[in-house]
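Recap from last week: sequence in, structure out.
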Amino acid sequence: ITTSHDRQGVYYMVHDTGCGINQKDQAKIFKPFFTTKMTGPGKGSQLVRGLGLSAAFTMLGRYGAVFDVASKPGRTVFTVRFNYNKERMIKNPLPDGKEIMEEMEVLEQ
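Predicted structure tokens:
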């Protein structure tokens, strides 16, 4: 977990070195009920899955926060930004995933 701040707000970044999330799935991970997990007989629980990121995205958005993901093989970064001013959030959206990944690589050096 990494934290930082700038003139726009406070950032919380959670990163790991897992297998990554492919581009196709990144576009869907904040949608309700989306999952890459297998469900059904012989494949684990049959409980409905895929609400965690959607719920977090919705709750954070209600408070004016921005929740985003950047991923490549071997590296995923989830970023939450709490803005000091809600109007700034609209004018200055979260940097794109590529920029976040580059910043994380600089921090690791």
